[in-house]
């Protein structure tokens, strides 16, 4: 989970401006030369990986507690 948290933090800090522009105005992001679709899919992939990692972590903790 620490690795996923570090990856999320690094992704958001490096691409903060691009994510902000593409989230609120994808037309402007495309005009400025960003790839809004690629940023969207990268963010969704990162979100999916974080969700799966969190479920695995919570599942392991619940099994040990049982």
From TrEMBL:
Entry's localization field: Cell membrane
rRNA-binding listed as a keyword: no
Pfam families listed in its UniProt record: ABC-3 (PF00950)
Principal location class: membrane
Transmembrane portions of the chain: none
UniProt keyword annotation of Cell membrane present: yes
Protein keywords: Cell membrane, Membrane, Transmembrane, Transmembrane helix, Transport
Topology in the lipid bilayer: Multi-pass membrane protein
Superkingdom of the source species: Bacteria
Family affiliation: Belongs to the ABC-3 integral membrane protein family.
Protein name: EamA domain-containing protein
Source organism per UniProt: Deinococcus malanensis
